[in-house]
Amino acid sequence: MGGTYDPETGQIVWEAHVPIEEQHAHYAAHPPSCLGALEGTAIDLSGHPFDGHGEPVNTIFAVRCPCGSRLFTALGHFDEDGDYPLPPVILECAGCRVEHVVFDASRHGFDGVVGNLANSEPEGQLDELCAADVGGPPCEIILRFEFPSDVLGDPEWSGREPELFSWITIVGRNPSDGRLATLFELECA
User: Fold this and answer.
1) Nearest Cα to 19, choosing from 2, 42, 43, 40?
2) Where are the alpha helices (DSSP H) in 60-170?
3) 3-class SS at 132?
């Protein structure tokens, strides 16, 4: 990824071909294609804690179905223990019931795009991602993408930058009171 540890300062020094603020604007204007037909609006959610690599380039989108609905039931695959959801992750629109695959690890994110992962059938039982913390489904959905800071401006990745996110987080938001809960997250690089 784009950072190296500086032992003198104890800080990560981020390598970037394009200034970080310009990267924020670029990714906000160019959402990853995994959003498909969903309409993504870039938002600020700086108060919500996100896991990840610590990269400074994060873009967050609130999504809406083409039918106009902002409410979805998030679905993931669970193994027999049911401990942690696995991709692919599907958003089922509460308005029109159309299903949108928003993350398939074999096609989306850095590893999926560069071919580090083989195509495979989903394993486990498809079920709702826990949304009890936001009042249960359906809820509003927010997708956060963390990008390596050294990809934008590197000729090797030209034209594919929005697809090369290194971490995805899917957050549910209660439409009545705005409560947030992380529904799914995964390292993609």
Assistant:
1) 2
2) 109-114
3) helix
